[in-house]
Design the sequence.
């Protein structure tokens, strides 16, 4: 573990961290290459430690996690996500973790996987139709839409196109606003003047009303669908027997939607791009699909992948 920590000194002494604010991703990559895998950067009135050293990461996240709290950026996320697993910590996090965990047991996920497969196959068919018409496709947007459909199906058994489109729009717009607040906190006051914050509050109010309506209907349903919402409704803390109230259910549902589709969509986008650059790997993938799934003609997803 490093014994000394290099310090990045920016060009603007009146606005420490200005270089980071202009392009956080590029700055972090470039400085890590120049300064090493563990360095400190003054940022406004704070200090940021940038870590890519595996020993330090283990020290913070695994060996001494109780000594650290989540960054102020999570306060911005709470405006949309509430106090779900991503934003909470301490005893509240542990309680929610115990409550959510039963929904992700292997036996529970097997049924969800079948539903995911149906949605994926239908979406691949639509992509094939677009491709046959000669349409140019933005694969990043397509993967975002596909994973949003899958998450909404597994979370709420929702397949209504209007609902899906509106929920997707609300989360994308809300995410952009929260990133703005996190990266440019000095501009937050202007968001209250130009209507950005008002629009954000309106979007979140719509999302909350939609989720609470689903929760209320699900509690009254004698034969609820087998989705994540139903599973979380019936999940109990194995130590205390507690169940989640409506607000906790809302926070976890929104967290699962927000965190569950973009990361997967980004991974799929880059995976497809890399596959397009490596035909030898594609050949191996085709063989694996046939080996694992059997006859590729029996699965629309594998048929498209192998074409």
Sequence:
């Amino acid at each position: 573990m490093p014994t000394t920590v290099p310090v990045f000194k920016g060009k603007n002494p009146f606005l420490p961290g200005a270089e980071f604010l202009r392009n956080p991703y590029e700055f972090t990559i470039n400085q890590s290459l120049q300064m090493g895998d563990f360095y400190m950067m003054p940022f406004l009135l704070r200090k940021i430690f940038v870590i890519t050293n595996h020993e330090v990461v283990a020290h913070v996240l695994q060996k001494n996690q109780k000594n650290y709290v989540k960054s102020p950026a999570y306060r911005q996320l709470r405006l949309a996500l509430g106090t779900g697993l991503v934003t909470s910590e301490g005893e509240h996090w542990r309680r929610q973790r115990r409550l959510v965990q039963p929904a992700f047991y292997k036996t529970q996920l097997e049924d969800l996987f079948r539903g995911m497969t149906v949605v994926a196959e239908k979406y691949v068919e639509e992509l094939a139709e677009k491709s046959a018409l000669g349409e140019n496709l933005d694969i990043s947007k397509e993967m975002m839409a596909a994973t949003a459909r899958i998450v909404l199906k597994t979370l709420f058994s929702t397949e209504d196109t209007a609902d899906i489109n509106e929920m997707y729009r609300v989360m994308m717009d809300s995410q952009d606003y929260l990133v703005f607040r996190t990266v440019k906190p000095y501009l937050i006051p202007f968001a209250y003047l130009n209507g950005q914050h008002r629009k954000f509050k309106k979007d979140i109010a719509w999302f909350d009303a939609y989720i609470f309506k689903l929760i209320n209907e699900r509690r009254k349903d004698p034969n609820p669908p087998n989705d994540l919402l139903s599973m979380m409704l019936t999940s109990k803390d194995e130590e205390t027997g507690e169940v989640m109230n409506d607000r906790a259910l809302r926070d976890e549902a929104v967290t699962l939607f927000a965190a569950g589709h973009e990361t997967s969509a980004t991974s799929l986008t880059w995976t497809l791009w890399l596959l397009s650059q490596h035909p030898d790997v594609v050949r191996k993938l085709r063989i694996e699909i046939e080996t694992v799934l059997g006859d590729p003609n029996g699965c629309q997803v594998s048929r498209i992948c192998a074409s």
In short: The longest strand covers residues 38-43.
